[in-house]
Design brief:
Helix content is about 25%, strand content about 25%. The chain is α/β, with parallel strands linked by helices and about 210 residues long. Bound molecules: zinc ion (ZN).
Length: about 210
């Protein structure tokens, strides 16, 4: 487990390589919650930041794969937000559509309190976040843009690993292409993906969005 302060606003928590990254905005809003398997490690990370589970009032999930939403049930005070199309998946969560088969587990909480749409805006203690629907990896994938710092949280929408795992990221090639075109004109200082390192090299960002 590692916590990394990216800016005054954003902290990144990495639980294990299989878990999604968890990003905390202003110690109140989470982007993704990992598999939720490692309860003690999540608590330890929150301790490091001087907060508890109850301080989290809002969760945005980038999509409905279990390595991104599995920990939602740990945050009892949080309103859970996902793209509105996530409702379809979570009405009947299966081993296949939530990726549970890869993690040998089932979903503990499939609540959505606030469905999101493309271009919706959210504020987390004054920090503005814009929702961008970015399907391709899954139909309900969203990215979250923070205009103040020009950060883009991408979940698994952009294939950040240039290796054989690429096919895992792209489920629908045509839709993925449209998604990349949609992000093409956005001014981005940093990509904050659902797995692995953040990317702030302008050339690398350009290449990833040109794929
Ligand atoms: Zn995924």
């Amino acid at each position: 487990m590692r916590t990394h302060k990216i800016s005054d606003t954003v902290t990144k928590i990495q639980i294990t390589p299989l878990d999604s990254n968890i990003y905390i905005i202003n110690n109140t809003l989470l982007i993704d919650t990992s598999t939720g398997h490692h309860v003690a490690l999540i608590k330890k990370a929150l301790d490091t930041l001087g907060i508890t589970h109850d301080d989290i009032t809002c969760i945005i999930n980038t999509h409905t794969h279990i390595d991104h939403i599995g920990g939602n049930h740990l945050f009892k005070n949080a309103k859970i937000m996902m793209h509105e199309s996530a409702k379809t998946t979570l009405k009947e969560p299966t081993l296949k559509n939530t990726f549970s088969k890869y993690f040998n587990t089932t979903l503990k909480n499939s609540d959505i309190h606030i469905p999101l749409n493309d271009r919706d805006t959210i504020r987390a203690k004054g920090t503005k976040l814009e929702i961008i629907h970015t399907p391709g990896h899954s139909p309900d994938s969203i990215s979250i843009y923070m205009p103040d710092q020009k950060y883009l949280f991408t979940g698994d929408a952009i294939p950040v690993r240039f290796d054989k795992k690429l096919s895992v990221y792209i489920k629908n090639r045509e839709t993925s292409k449209e998604t990349l075109q949609k992000l093409h004109n956005l001014e981005i200082n940093m990509l904050l993906p659902g797995h692995g390192k953040t990317i702030d090299n302008p050339q690398q960002i350009k290449e990833l969005l040109n794929l």
